[in-house]
Amino acid sequence: MSWLHELVARLSGVDGHFARDIVASLLVGLLILLIQAFLRRQIARTGLPPESKRRWLVQVRNGALILFFFGLTVIWAAELRSVALSLVAFAAAVVLATKELIMCLSGTILRGSAQSFKLGDRIEVNGLRGDVIDMGLMTTTLLDVGPGSTIHQHTGRAVVLPNSIWLSSPVTNVSFTELYVLHVLTIPVELGVELPAIEEALLSAANDICEPFLEEAKAHLDKLGARRGLETPTAEPRIWMRVTAPKQLELLLRFPAPTRKVGRVEQAILRRFLESGLRLDRG
């Protein structure tokens, strides 16, 4: 065992615990090699068929490797635990330092997997509304539409959104129905006015303005409903009413319009209706 004393002497300058682990690892490896050699010799002496011998030799080899790595794990458990803790601390620091980057990349994955919108769609998210003009790995750029939620004109501003917003905020795809959309125009009126005449004038204005593209809008919505398995809403202009105050009503006019011309169609209907000269109050 002079070689063992010599090895210990060479490792005497190293930390005692570390040196003992190295020596123990070498001894475990040597012991497993001796056991493996003994078992291989015993298997070779048996009268088993060649295939059975080969199978046993493979099992002995694999078992020796498993025992060796198990022994190393037991011997170096303290060091491995320290390394694991260091790796966890390092990983936590990396995650904290790159939190926004990771969230943006996660938002990109969510945006792509959900397919909630595509380039060119008009969307609303977190109080912002606009047309999608760029979709990157980290950001999404909108061409702002407004001002406010009732105006449909481009403001000339570009809004750059971090993709992390898709993880926390719901997104509304205004152009989900693609070429044509169903838009709602709200008209406030007082109780006691000539409501039937106002409804008739509003519907007449909507039918006149929408007449050039009404059939095409119907066909498009029917085709879209059949493709996506959705119940197709009627495309003809319709009016609903709701009470907003004790003496106040709102007429909700729903009408079809080309996706890129919603604002123009709305303004044309409103102007045509105002030409009727009907009062919306009792004054």
Write the layout of secondary structure elements.
Layout: H1 2-10, H2 16-45, H3 50-75, H4 77-97, H5 99-114, E1 122-125, E2 128-135, E3 139-146, E4 153-162, H6 165-168, E5 171-173, E6 180-190, H7 195-210, H8 214-228, E7 238-245, E8 248-258, H9 262-274
Overview of this protein structure:
By secondary structure, this protein is an alpha+beta fold. The protein has 3 domains: 94 residues, no CATH class; 74 residues, SH3 type barrels (Roll), CATH 2.30.30; 95 residues, 2-Layer Sandwich (GMP Synthetase, Chain A, domain 3). It has 9 helices and 8 strands. Strand 1 and strand 2 form a beta hairpin. Helix 2 packs antiparallel against helix 3. The chain starts with a helix and ends in a 9-residue tail after the last helix.
Query: Under the CATH scheme, which class of the largest domain?
Result: Alpha Beta
Proper CATH architecture of the largest domain: 2-Layer Sandwich
> So what's the oligomer here?
single chain
For the biggest sheet, the summary is: 5 strands, antiparallel
The radius of gyration is 38 Å
The CA-CA distance between the termini, in Å, is 116 Å
Let me know the number of strands: 8
Low-confidence stretches: none
Structural class: alpha+beta
Please, what is the average pLDDT?
79
Strand content: 15-25%
How many structural domains in the coordinates? 3
Give me the number of helical elements. Answer: 9
Strand line-up in the sheet with most strands? 4-3-2-1-5
Q: Shape, please? A: elongated
